[in-house]
Amino acid sequence: MIRKMLIIAVLLALASVSFGSTASVIWMTITPGARPNGMGEAFTALADDATASYWNPAGLAFADTSRQELTLQHCNWLPQLADDLYYEYLGYARHLSGWGGIGGNITFMSMGEQQETSEGGINLGEFYSYGVALTGSFGTEVAPGVSVGLGLKFIYDHLYYQDSGKGTSFAADLGVLYRVQMEELGLGNGRLQVGAALSNLGPNMSYGGSSENNPLPRTIRTGLAYIPMDTELTRLTIVADYSKLLTNVDEGLGTEFNENKWGAGAEFWYYDLLALRAGYMHDTEGMSVISGPTFGAGLQYAGFQLDMSFVPVEENLQGSGKYNNKYSLSVRF
Question: Distance between CA atoms of 265 and 275, rounded to whole angstroms?
Answer without folding.
Answer: 13
